[in-house]
UniProtKB/TrEMBL annotation:
Membrane topology type: Multi-pass membrane protein
First-listed, main subcellular location of the protein, grouped into a coarse class: membrane
Listed PROSITE patterns: MFS (PS50850)
Any GO MF annotation of the entry: transmembrane transporter activity
Organism of this sequence: Muribaculaceae bacterium Z82
Stretches assigned to the Major facilitator superfamily (MFS) profile domain: 52-499
Name under which the protein is recorded: MFS transporter
């Protein structure tokens, strides 16, 4: 890649998620549908470009805040609603299943309705879900609120990525993508801090006030600053594919979440889920208008890079969900203190995203990606030793180290994976990436929280204290995560070295 890498990412990015972006010509508008006729389609420049960029980054900030809202609150959800940790974890799992399903639809929806309508709908969905969550009266109502919020994440993550790269200044594609990832990182950092503050001093329902306010502000700003950058088309939405995607992911993740409790039924659910997902994939190759164009996966470099991303992300999701449970359940901290302790490490992620993007723009993925995985793994091994001694400060420094490694790896892999695709497949590759991120996150969440919940229930039933049970479950799941990351490190080293040699890097 070398110096040419920075030029190729924006070049391929000028492909739309849905269609070719217009230069400076009027949109083909359609009256009587949705929110009415669209403003002119154009690629913004100057101040208009930066206003759009700010809206996109703010939108992903909202999406990341919605996604991580419950990470710090699982213990409180279990306590308030008198459910197990694995049941409380459905606040996360249900969210990611819906988000992953909507991501598969994002490109088709963008083709049909245009950027402005998609983004405004996302703000409205986030606002509605947040208000329902604030007013929720039982577990079911709050769960429904999370599913509505998930619509926003499913729309925003793939759409914003493509828009950022489409309007980015020439030669700054990977850097702007890294800044976008950094904005997500800021949301991930401040979500546990603010959520912990509200959870400790106000209550569980108050968590939903923050995304409600953010959604309202973005909705008002969006009415003024958002406009379409892609031509619209009469795109058909394949409802059967939507149902297959939702049912397949739901069945598999349900089985994985319960596998340590009821082995045989859980394995049956997982098998059914795999079969339905396989049917979904087969259907995408055999219908005229696939919901998710899977042809990028026929490119070996893209497929290998996405597999590495899934392994690494499934391992790193451990930090987002299990570290708060350790801090609250074992160390005995309040949700606010736990959130404050997590803010610093996650900000390390945001900073390293930017650093990783700059390095990749100049030098490519070798040795950046393997080095990032090594940093994550070293941090996790150190967490195992420090957590067993309840050395919380040292443990959080190790967590920060791992988060920094995550920031070096994931934006870099994403930009590198998209860079190998032909221009016409860039948008589909972006949607596939966003879908796989959600799937990897839900798999990691189901696996780790499911195992920890089973450990906690079993140990407490045998007379162990809550602190001891949480500590044992934390250590058990951490060893599994270390195993996953070890496999990812080996794969990343081979992948990055082989790819760099073939592309002439030294």
């Amino acid at each position: 890649m070398g110096s040419s890498h920075s030029a190729t990412v924006p070049g391929s990015a000028k492909t739309a998620v849905a269609a070719q972006p217009a230069a400076q010509k009027p949109a083909q508008t359609r009256s009587g549908r949705g929110l009415g006729s669209d403003p002119a389609v154009s690629i913004p420049t100057g101040r208009a470009m930066w206003a759009m960029m700010a809206m996109m980054l703010g939108s992903n900030l909202l999406a990341s805040f919605n996604q991580s809202l419950m990470n710090i609150a699982l213990d409180q959800v279990a306590t308030d609603f008198h459910v197990s940790l694995s049941m409380a974890n459905w606040m996360v799992l249900g969210f990611t299943i819906v988000a992953a399903t909507v991501i598969t639809m994002a490109a088709a929806l963008l083709k049909r309705y245009g950027l402005r309508k998609i983004m405004l709908f996302g703000y409205v969905a986030s606002l509605a879900g947040s208000l329902l969550g604030f007013l929720s009266w039982d577990f079911g109502a709050m769960f429904a609120a999370r599913l509505i919020q998930a619509l926003t994440v499913g729309l925003f993550f793939p759409v914003v990525t493509s828009v950022v790269l489409t309007i980015a200044p020439k030669g700054k594609g990977a850097t702007m993508l890294a800044i976008n990832s950094g904005a997500i990182g800021v949301g991930l950092a401040f979500a546990p801090l603010l959520a912990g503050l509200l959870l400790t001093y106000v209550g569980l329902h108050a968590l939903f006030l923050i995304p409600a306010v953010m959604s309202a502000v973005l909705l008002v700003c969006g009415l003024k600053f958002l406009h379409n950058v892609y031509e619209r088309q009469d795109q058909r939405i394949d409802v059967v594919s939507v149902l297959l995607s939702f049912a397949g992911l739901g069945a598999f993740i349900f089985g994985l979440n319960e596998v340590t409790r009821t082995l045989v039924p859980s394995l049956a659910f997982m098998a059914v889920g795999v079969a339905i997902v396989a049917l979904f994939a087969w259907r995408q190759f055999h219908i005229a208008d696939p919901l998710l164009n899977l042809s990028p996966l026929t490119h070996k470099k893209f497929a290998a890079g996405e597999l590495l991303m899934m392994l690494g992300y499934a391992g790193s999701i451990y930090m987002s969900l299990l570290v708060p449970l350790y801090l609250e359940g074992t160390a005995g901290f309040s949700a606010f203190v736990a959130g404050a302790l997590l803010a610093g490490p996650i900000l390390c992620y945001a900073v390293s995203c930017f650093i990783g993007g700059r390095i990749e723009d100049k030098h490519g993925i070798w040795p950046l990606v393997p080095a990032g995985f090594l940093v994550i793994l070293v941090g996790f091994v150190a967490v195992e030793f420090t957590s067993s001694q309840q050395l919380v400060v040292a443990m959080m420094l190790c967590v920060a180290t791992s988060y920094a490694g995550v920031g070096l790896v994931f934006p870099t892999l994403k930009a590198a994976d998209l860079d190998v695709l032909p221009r016409k497949l860039f948008a589909h590759g972006s949607s596939i990436h966003s879908t796989l991120v959600q799937i990897a996150g839900s798999l990691g969440s189901a696996l780790f929280v499911g195992i920890m919940s089973a450990d906690v229930d079993r140990l407490m039933a045998s007379g162990a204290t809550k602190a001891a049970a949480y500590a044992s479950g934390f250590s058990h799941t951490l060893l599994i995560s270390i195993g996953i990351l070890t496999a990812a490190l080996i794969g990343a080293t081979v992948y990055a070295r082989v790819r760099s040699r073939r592309e002439g890097q030294h």
